[in-house]
Amino acid sequence: MKLPESSDPAPVTEQKPHAMIRQDKAVTEQFVRANLGWMLAVAKRIVKDSASAEDVVQDAFSNVFKNLETFRGDAALKTWMHRIVVNQALMALRRQRRRNEQPIDELLPEFDRDGCRIDEPSMLSDIARTPEAMLLSADRRQQVLASIERLPDSYRVVLMLRDIEELTTSEVAEMTGLSEANVKVRLHRARAALKKLLSPLFEGAGL
Amino acid sequence: MNIMPRSVRQRIRSIMFRLPLMITCAEFEDFIISYLDGSLSPGQRRVFELHLAVCRECRNYLAAYRSAMSVTRDVLDAQTADTLADVPEDLVSAVLAARSQQKRK
Questions:
Q1: CATH number at residue A186
Q2: Does residue A3 lie in a domain region?
Q3: Scanning every residue of chain B, which has its alpha carbon at the shortest distance from the alpha carbon of A33?
Q4: What digits encode the pLDDT tens for the residues A127-136?
Q5: Cβ burial, residue B6 (10 Å; 0-12/13-18/19+)
């Protein structure tokens, strides 16, 4: 995901966080408004339900405020905040009880004894050639979101962090405690499983 | 259109994939992630692309795999846009209230 630019012309990022450390109310509110939306979107993608996502954002802001004074400015403020909200969301996810998850194995590609692929051709493969067809109906969007949520958390999170939050393999390894090799395996399995889950949605439909 | 039955096609492929510089679909599968992130060596890349050229199943599969990635990205981008368009006011207030509490401590 590209982090959205702050909408205001003199971004808080430039003024450095001093005004906020001084507790300038107007600056603080402007800062919160400029960042709350994208932080909430990140949190929702990781923890899934809105109520927990809001808790995550509250905790993340509290963390940001607490550490503003030590923020050195050698990283972009937004990158720093992005890490904070991702970490907070991962912690919240670990606390959540895991629902009954479908084992990922059932969703992985199959091969015969000779290593030949056994795969039904999917309409999904035609989409790549028609990018304008990407305007998906609200219904279709809901179905895609539901498919993403069917992935086991430990795979879904890696997919989110790599493909959507655009963190590197080593960053994801560090944040999740997985080895880099494992991050790659999980990313591939998550994408393959999602391909299988999405394929029936595009069957027969010209989208 | 295919005039050959699936079982015959499968048989031909399994023999072909044992030729030099050929890999099976299962081996191809293991290379996908490195192919897409550009981390295959030039030699590995040639082997990967050779399989891609001769195996229609894997071509379709890879195309669908990439489509799934882009559909996912598009849907989540749309979700982000929705979230940005409708930031909950009570959450803004809660964050600001917590901030003034925090400062007073």
A1: 1.10.10.10
A2: no
A3: B92
A4: 655 554 456 7
A5: exposed
Residue A77 belongs to a domain with what CATH number?
Answer: 1.10.1740.10
Least CB-CB distance to B95: which of A23, A45, A58? A58
- Let me know whether A75 and A129 are in one domain: no
Q: How far is A23 from chain B (nearest CA, A)?
A: 8
Query: Predicted ipTM?
Result: 0.85
Q: How does pLDDT run across B54-103, given as a tens digit for each residue?
A: 999 999 999 999 999 999 999 999 999 999 999 999 999 999 999 888 76
Q: A2 lies in a domain?
A: no
Domain match, A109 and A87 both = no
Nearest-5° angle of CA A148, CA A137, CA A132? 95
A191 lies in the same domain as A132: yes
Contact A125 B64 (CB under 8 A): yes
Res A125 pLDDT > 90 = no
Range of the structural domain that residue A196 is part of = 104-202
Q: Which of A25-39, A62-76, A122-136, B45-59 has the lowest mean pLDDT?
A: A122-136
**What is the structure's pLDDT at A7?**
44
